[in-house]
UniProtKB/TrEMBL annotation:
Pfam (any one): Glyoxalase
Coiled coil: none
Record key words, sorted: Dioxygenase, Lyase, Metal-binding, Oxidoreductase
Sample GO molecular function, one term: methylmalonyl-CoA epimerase activity
GO biological process: L-methylmalonyl-CoA metabolic process
Xref: Gene3D superfamilies: 2,3-Dihydroxybiphenyl 1,2-Dioxygenase, domain 1
InterPro entries in the cross-refs: Glyas_Bleomycin-R_OHBP_Dase, Glyas_Fos-R_dOase_dom, MMCE/EMCE_epimerase, VOC_core
Species of the source: Actinomadura citrea
Protein name according to UniProt: Catechol 2,3-dioxygenase-like lactoylglutathione lyase family enzyme
Superkingdom in the source lineage: Bacteria
Length: 125
């Protein structure tokens, strides 16, 4: 096993790498780390390295066909003001996949990236 890196990596399968890079860097505060479009790119935000794998990437090709669609897993991003974030992202025309939900730990809403992968925006209680 290799030494731990400064980032935790998550791979998302996307159908358009550039659209995914634009989504994460423009709307969610990620910075482009590596660009090998159209096959692959990775973006970072804090300790999260998000690997964006297009259909031509080795990461996407290694995925079994029955697991190649966006699922219920999601990245979890903390926000200071969920209402303000929702308003800003709705004004940008982005797609939400849930209503605002309030629970004992805080409030959350699910946002979809261009490929349908989920991003949970969460404001702690």
């Amino acid at each position: 096993m290799t030494e731990p890196e400064k980032y935790a990596g998550v791979r998302y399968l996307v159908d358009d790498v550039q659209a995914a890079v634009d989504f994460y860097t423009t709307h969610l505060g990620f910075a482009l780390n590596r660009d090998a479009a159209p096959a692959f790119a990775d973006v970072v935000r804090g300790p999260l390295r998000l690997l964006l794998s297009g259909p031509a990437s080795s990461g996407a090709r290694a995925t079994p066909a029955d697991a190649a669609v966006a699922g219920g897993n999601r990245i979890h991003l903390l926000v200071d003001d969920l209402d303000a974030e929702v308003s800003r992202l709705r004004a940008a025309g982005l797609t939400f996949r849930s209503d605002l939900v309030t629970g004992p730990g805080g409030r959350q809403i699910l946002l979809a990236d261009p490929a349908g992968n989920l991003v949970e925006l969460f404001q702690p209680a």
